[in-house]
Amino acid sequence: MIAIFILGLVVGCALTLVVAAHARQSAALDRGTAEAELRRTVDPVVENLKRVSDEVAALERDRRTTHGEVSQMFRVVTAEVGRLRTETGSLVSALKRPHVRGAWGEMQLRNCVEAANMTAHVDFASQASVAGGRLRPDLIVRLPAGREVIVDAKVPMDAYLRALEAPESEQKALLALHGRQVRGHIDTLASKAYHAQLEGSPDFVVMFIPNDAIYCGALEADPTLLEHGAAKGVLIATPTSLIALLHAVYYGWRQERIAESAREIAAAGQELHRRMSTFLEPYAKLGRQLDSAVHAFNQATGSLEARVLPQLRRIEEAGAASEKATPAVAPLETPARLVGDQAA
Predict the structure, then answer these.
(1) 266 SS3 class
(2) pLDDT digit of tens for each residue in the chain (344 aa)?
(3) Using an 8 Å Cβ cutoff, are 102 and 155 in contact?
(4) Environment class of residue 140 by beta-carbon count within 10 Å: exposed (0-12), middle (13-18) or buried (19+)?
(5) Fewest 10 Å CB contacts: which of 104, 139, 144, 224?
(6) In angstroms, what CA-CA distances link 292 with 286, 330, 343?
(7) DSSP notation for 181-241
(8) Residue 295's CB: how many other CB atoms inside 10 A?
(9) Structural contact between residues 140 and 151, judged by C-beta atoms closer than 8 angstroms
(10) β-pairing, 139-142 with 234-237?
(11) DSSP code string of 99-141
């Protein structure tokens, strides 16, 4: 019994060891499979994370490059704004001097004239004066049909220039003063009556403001400036509107040149007709004379054949002819074609 018990115990232990070994083997196989499955699942995620990391690194490099470029651009813009502010201040300081302001206004006028191709039809202040030299406009624009338009550029802008440099609390009062100065200049131009000094001038004068901001500043202070000027016969023009006006005048000159060319062509046609009529008179007379000559030739030929040639033949028959043969003379069958004759 003891032997059987021991044998059973040994067999049980062996079975236990076999089962344990089988369990460990199965666990090892399951762990390997799980690790393989986990690796198959994790590897794509790792690759994607690596790709994302590379993209983030590239974006960071681009960000640093862009940040450097933006910083450089910002520094350049800041420098340009500072330079522009300095140059604007220098321009404002220069424009405070009347002769500089006048030269600047004249330069703006010349630029407008050149932009509209109107140089050939414009007289500047250095070339023209009216009323015996007492009135000297800045510009005289010649129109077709002998008319002329006066342009004046002596607009006051002292208050506006002071407003550019003044504190914000004082700008409104200075701009209001600028509006009053512009209105006063309109009244001054109206009192000069330029159109009365020029026979071909229309009943208005153009007041040129060489900068749109100066005009807008005056208009903001006094919104009725445009209507006030029109009622006084003074038209306000900035560079933009003056170029448009000069372009319209240039178009008028183009039409005038076309009309003048048409008149010249008509005059040339009339002269050609007159000369051809004069030429055709003796030419027709020559045709009639040629026709008369043909008729006379044919008459002479008939008389020759009837009266002279028979006697010459008798002389030849009598043997008294000379060594030279007598040529045959035939009448002309085609008469001269007269001028105006429709026959071919």
Answers:
(1) helix
(2) 444 445 455 445 555 655 555 556 555 556 667 666 667 766 776 777 778 778 888 888 888 888 888 888 878 777 776 666 565 555 555 556 655 666 677 778 888 888 887 777 776 654 455 555 556 677 788 878 777 888 888 888 888 878 877 888 888 888 889 889 889 989 988 888 776 776 667 778 888 888 888 888 888 888 898 899 889 888 888 888 888 888 888 888 888 788 888 888 888 888 888 888 887 788 777 777 877 887 888 888 788 777 777 777 777 777 776 777 777 777 777 766 666 665 54
(3) no
(4) buried
(5) 224
(6) 10, 17, 18
(7) HHHHHHHHHHHH-HHHHSTT--S-EEEE-S-HHHHHHHHHH-TTHHHHHHHHTEEEE-HHH
(8) 13
(9) yes
(10) unpaired
(11) HHHHHHHHHHHHHHHHHTT-GGGEEETTT--BTTTTB--SEEE
Q: What angle do CA 88, 92, 93 make, to 5 degrees?
A: 115
For residue 23, what are the β-bridge partners? none
* Separation of CA 222 from chain center: 35
Q: What are 328's two structure tokens?
A: 């045959």
Closest-CA residue to 116 (of 254, 310, 277, 315) = 254
**Contact assessment for residue 181 and residue 156, using Cβ atoms and an 8 Å cutoff:** yes
What are the residue ranges spanned by the domains of the chain?
Answer: 85-260
Report how far residue 71's alpha carbon sits from residue 330's, in angstroms, rounded to the nearest whole number: 112
- For 237, list phi and psi in degrees, rounded to 5: -135, 135
Residue 204, token pair as written in the block: 């208005």
Q: What is the pTM of this model?
A: 0.51
Residue 152, helix vs strand vs coil:
strand
Residue 331: phi and psi, rounded to 5, are: -70, 160
> What do you get for the CA distance between the two ends of the chain, in Å?
164
Report d(CA 41, CA 6) in Å as an integer. Answer: 51
User: From CA 217, how far away is CA 178, in angstroms rounded?
Assistant: 8
**What DSSP state is assigned to residue 148?**
E
- CA–CA separation, 226 and 281 (whole Å): 68
